[in-house]
Amino acid sequence: MIRLARLAALVVPLIIASEAQAKGWGPKSPIVRGDGTAIGTVRVRETPGGLAMKLEASGLPPGEIGMHIHAVGRCDGPDFASAGPHWNPAGKQHGRLNPAGEHLGDLGNLWVGADGSVRMDMLPDPAGSVPSPFDGDGAALVVHAQKDDEKTDPSGNSGARIACAVLKAGK
Q: Most buried of 82, 110, 136, 171, CB within 10 angstroms?
Protein backbone atom coordinates (compact mmCIF):
# COMPACT_ATOMS: atom_id res chain seq x y z
CA MET A 1 0.00 0.00 0.00
CA ILE A 2 2.84 2.39 0.79
CA ARG A 3 4.35 1.78 -2.67
CA LEU A 4 1.04 2.77 -4.30
CA ALA A 5 0.93 5.96 -2.24
CA ARG A 6 4.48 6.81 -3.34
CA LEU A 7 3.60 6.10 -6.96
CA ALA A 8 0.51 8.32 -6.70
CA ALA A 9 2.64 11.06 -5.15
CA LEU A 10 4.86 10.93 -8.24
CA VAL A 11 2.16 10.54 -10.89
CA VAL A 12 -0.42 13.12 -9.70
CA PRO A 13 1.99 16.09 -10.05
CA LEU A 14 2.88 14.90 -13.58
CA ILE A 15 -0.79 14.79 -14.54
CA ILE A 16 -1.36 18.28 -13.11
CA ALA A 17 1.72 19.59 -14.97
CA SER A 18 0.52 18.01 -18.24
CA GLU A 19 -2.91 19.63 -17.86
CA ALA A 20 -1.30 23.02 -17.18
CA GLN A 21 0.89 22.66 -20.28
CA ALA A 22 -2.16 21.74 -22.37
CA LYS A 23 -3.90 25.02 -21.52
CA GLY A 24 -4.01 27.42 -24.40
CA TRP A 25 -4.13 24.65 -27.02
CA GLY A 26 -7.12 24.65 -29.30
CA PRO A 27 -9.25 21.53 -29.64
CA LYS A 28 -8.08 18.70 -31.87
CA SER A 29 -9.17 19.39 -35.42
CA PRO A 30 -9.58 16.45 -37.80
CA ILE A 31 -7.30 16.32 -40.83
CA VAL A 32 -9.46 15.04 -43.68
CA ARG A 33 -9.00 13.78 -47.23
CA GLY A 34 -11.08 15.20 -50.08
CA ASP A 35 -13.77 12.56 -49.48
CA GLY A 36 -14.11 13.62 -45.81
CA THR A 37 -12.24 10.63 -44.35
CA ALA A 38 -10.30 11.62 -41.23
CA ILE A 39 -6.61 10.68 -41.38
CA GLY A 40 -5.33 12.50 -38.31
CA THR A 41 -5.59 15.49 -36.02
CA VAL A 42 -3.91 18.84 -35.46
CA ARG A 43 -3.95 21.23 -32.49
CA VAL A 44 -2.61 24.76 -32.46
CA ARG A 45 -1.74 27.35 -29.86
CA GLU A 46 -1.10 31.01 -30.62
CA THR A 47 2.15 32.49 -29.33
CA PRO A 48 3.74 35.88 -30.02
CA GLY A 49 6.18 34.12 -32.40
CA GLY A 50 3.46 32.34 -34.39
CA LEU A 51 1.48 29.13 -34.14
CA ALA A 52 2.72 26.16 -32.15
CA MET A 53 1.35 22.97 -33.68
CA LYS A 54 0.91 19.29 -32.78
CA LEU A 55 0.07 17.07 -35.73
CA GLU A 56 -0.52 13.32 -36.13
CA ALA A 57 -1.64 11.71 -39.39
CA SER A 58 -1.44 8.53 -41.43
CA GLY A 59 -2.23 7.56 -45.01
CA LEU A 60 -0.02 10.26 -46.54
CA PRO A 61 2.53 9.82 -49.34
CA PRO A 62 5.95 8.93 -47.87
CA GLY A 63 8.77 11.47 -48.09
CA GLU A 64 8.64 15.26 -48.07
CA ILE A 65 5.34 16.96 -48.87
CA GLY A 66 4.31 20.60 -48.67
CA MET A 67 2.24 21.96 -45.81
CA HIS A 68 0.85 25.48 -45.55
CA ILE A 69 -1.51 27.62 -43.54
CA HIS A 70 -4.29 28.84 -45.81
CA ALA A 71 -6.25 32.06 -45.36
CA VAL A 72 -9.77 30.65 -44.96
CA GLY A 73 -10.96 28.24 -42.27
CA ARG A 74 -12.86 25.90 -44.63
CA CYS A 75 -12.03 22.43 -45.89
CA ASP A 76 -14.64 21.55 -48.51
CA GLY A 77 -13.57 18.54 -50.59
CA PRO A 78 -12.59 17.23 -52.89
CA ASP A 79 -9.90 19.83 -53.72
CA PHE A 80 -10.05 22.15 -50.67
CA ALA A 81 -10.21 25.25 -52.88
CA SER A 82 -12.46 26.67 -50.14
CA ALA A 83 -9.34 27.11 -47.94
CA GLY A 84 -8.31 29.96 -50.25
CA PRO A 85 -4.71 31.02 -50.88
CA HIS A 86 -1.83 30.74 -48.46
CA TRP A 87 -2.04 33.02 -45.43
CA ASN A 88 -0.02 36.02 -46.56
CA PRO A 89 -0.90 39.23 -44.67
CA ALA A 90 2.27 41.04 -45.80
CA GLY A 91 1.81 40.30 -49.53
CA LYS A 92 5.12 38.42 -49.93
CA GLN A 93 6.08 35.79 -52.50
CA HIS A 94 6.25 32.07 -51.63
CA GLY A 95 9.09 30.24 -49.94
CA ARG A 96 12.08 30.89 -47.73
CA LEU A 97 14.38 30.51 -50.77
CA ASN A 98 12.48 33.15 -52.78
CA PRO A 99 14.23 36.54 -52.55
CA ALA A 100 10.79 38.21 -52.47
CA GLY A 101 9.38 35.75 -49.88
CA GLU A 102 8.47 34.27 -47.57
CA HIS A 103 4.86 34.62 -46.56
CA LEU A 104 3.55 33.60 -43.15
CA GLY A 105 1.64 30.57 -44.46
CA ASP A 106 4.87 28.88 -45.57
CA LEU A 107 5.58 25.96 -43.25
CA GLY A 108 8.15 24.16 -45.40
CA ASN A 109 7.86 20.43 -45.84
CA LEU A 110 6.35 17.73 -43.71
CA TRP A 111 8.50 14.60 -43.39
CA VAL A 112 6.30 11.51 -43.72
CA GLY A 113 7.57 8.05 -42.81
CA ALA A 114 7.74 5.10 -45.20
CA ASP A 115 4.49 3.81 -43.66
CA GLY A 116 2.68 7.06 -44.56
CA SER A 117 2.46 8.30 -40.98
CA VAL A 118 3.77 11.44 -39.32
CA ARG A 119 3.84 12.88 -35.84
CA MET A 120 5.16 16.40 -35.48
CA ASP A 121 5.43 19.13 -32.88
CA MET A 122 6.25 22.54 -34.39
CA LEU A 123 7.39 25.44 -32.26
CA PRO A 124 7.45 29.04 -33.53
CA ASP A 125 10.38 31.40 -33.28
CA PRO A 126 10.27 32.65 -29.68
CA ALA A 127 11.96 35.90 -30.73
CA GLY A 128 9.49 36.53 -33.55
CA SER A 129 6.36 38.61 -33.68
CA VAL A 130 3.63 37.21 -35.92
CA PRO A 131 0.01 38.34 -36.25
CA SER A 132 -2.79 35.85 -35.69
CA PRO A 133 -4.18 33.98 -38.70
CA PHE A 134 -7.55 33.74 -36.93
CA ASP A 135 -9.46 36.55 -38.57
CA GLY A 136 -13.17 36.57 -39.36
CA ASP A 137 -13.00 33.55 -41.67
CA GLY A 138 -10.42 31.52 -39.73
CA ALA A 139 -7.50 29.55 -41.11
CA ALA A 140 -6.80 26.06 -42.41
CA LEU A 141 -3.84 23.71 -42.56
CA VAL A 142 -3.48 22.20 -46.03
CA VAL A 143 -1.22 19.27 -46.89
CA HIS A 144 -0.08 18.97 -50.51
CA ALA A 145 0.80 15.91 -52.61
CA GLN A 146 4.41 16.83 -53.42
CA LYS A 147 7.50 18.44 -51.95
CA ASP A 148 7.46 22.24 -51.66
CA ASP A 149 10.49 23.66 -53.51
CA GLU A 150 10.30 26.67 -51.14
CA LYS A 151 10.78 29.24 -53.91
CA THR A 152 8.14 29.03 -56.64
CA ASP A 153 5.15 31.35 -56.18
CA PRO A 154 2.35 30.76 -55.25
CA SER A 155 2.70 27.26 -53.69
CA GLY A 156 6.21 25.92 -54.26
CA ASN A 157 5.13 23.47 -56.97
CA SER A 158 3.77 21.32 -54.16
CA GLY A 159 0.95 19.82 -56.21
CA ALA A 160 -2.65 19.06 -55.35
CA ARG A 161 -4.20 19.72 -51.97
CA ILE A 162 -4.68 16.23 -50.51
CA ALA A 163 -5.65 16.86 -46.87
CA CYS A 164 -7.02 19.74 -44.84
CA ALA A 165 -7.90 20.75 -41.28
CA VAL A 166 -9.79 23.79 -40.05
CA LEU A 167 -7.57 25.33 -37.37
CA LYS A 168 -9.18 26.33 -34.09
CA ALA A 169 -7.53 28.72 -31.67
CA GLY A 170 -7.19 27.88 -28.00
CA LYS A 171 -8.73 29.99 -25.29
A: 110
